[in-house]
Amino acid sequence: MFVKKNEPTAEEVETSLKYPGLQVQPGCGERPSRLRQSIRKFLRAQFGRPMGFWGCVSGKVMAHTPSNRERIHWVVSLLDIRPQDRVLEIGFGPGLAIEQVSRIASSGFVAGFDHSEVMLRQAAKRNAKAIRDGRVALELVSVTNLPSFDEPFDKIFTINSIHFWVNPVDCLKDLRKLLRPGGLIAVTLQPRSRGATDATATEIGKEIASNLELAGFLLVRLEVKESKPVSVACALGINPAHERSVESREHSCSSA
Questions:
Q1: What is d(CA 37, CA 199) in angstroms, rounded to the nearest whole number?
Q2: Does residue 223 sit in helix, strand or coil?
Q3: Which H/E stretch holds residue 12?
Q4: For 182, how many CA atoms within 13 A lie in the half-sphere containing its CB?
Q5: Is residue 94 reached through a cis peptide bond, with omega within 30 degrees of 0 on the bond before it?
């Protein structure tokens, strides 16, 4: 017997299209057609964790989109990387930022984590010489399962990745453990969903900045760059020199 499925409610549609790592959702309130829902879910899956043939295509798109290169250049400038710095990128994609950072940190070390085998292959090919020289190391690792290192990093950054993290504050706390006292983290997002606006980007940036504070980072600031199709937001924070600084902040927050 054929049973007709009930149409999903607006709330069910919205929930199915949400990014797990954001409270502020770009394009919130839309009710796209079933076809558009399917396309959007497929694209988000491929850009969140590229796999197979379409994952290869996604990587090529990321590598050759001018706005992506512009965004990377801006974020790297905010990090103020020095030649001797140790730098870590989470979600390196096709490896464009790794390539740029390794040129600046010429006497330092650059590491990258990504949970996509397709992206690891593309990034490793793009950065083959630096990997052979021991200046770059790329690993198939999820942000929820970070390895340990003998030495901490001076800078950590991630671009258009945090919205896919299920527990962003917990992940940021884990990243803080890999950062030296006084080290800098930069978390960047440019919402690309249909319906996203400059105002959306700013609100998401504020949310990310708040998450950095909840994770124990200090001197958190938000930078917003006008871009196309919408602005780019980058939240930056400093790993405190003493854990007591974090404990004092947490106490003041709980007392408020």
A1: 24
A2: strand
A3: helix 10-16
A4: 1
A5: no
* Closest among 195, 182, 160, 190 to 238, alpha carbons compared: 182
What are the tens digits of pLDDT across the range 233-246?
999 999 998 765 55
Please list the helix, strand and coil fractions of the chain in percent, rounded to the nearest 5, in that order. 45, 20, 35
Q: Is 126 left (phi over 0), alpha (psi -120 to 50) or beta?
A: alpha
Residues in the chain: 256
Task: Count Cα atoms within 13 angstroms, Cβ side, for 195.
Answer: 10
Cα end-to-end span (Å), the chain: 60
pLDDT of res. 191: 87
More confident residue, 131 or 50: 131
Residue 152: partners with Cβ closer than 8 Å, 6 or more residues away: 86, 178, 179, 180, 183
Residues 220, 188: contact at Cβ < 8 Å?
A: no
Structural domains of the chain in order of their starting residue, each with its CATH number: 66-255 (3.40.50.150)
Q: 75: closest CA among 179, 228, 219, 223?
A: 223
The helix/strand/coil state of 5 is coil
Token representation of residue 214? 């909840």
pTM of the model as a whole: 0.78
Radius of gyration over every alpha carbon of the chain, rounded to an integer in angstroms: 19
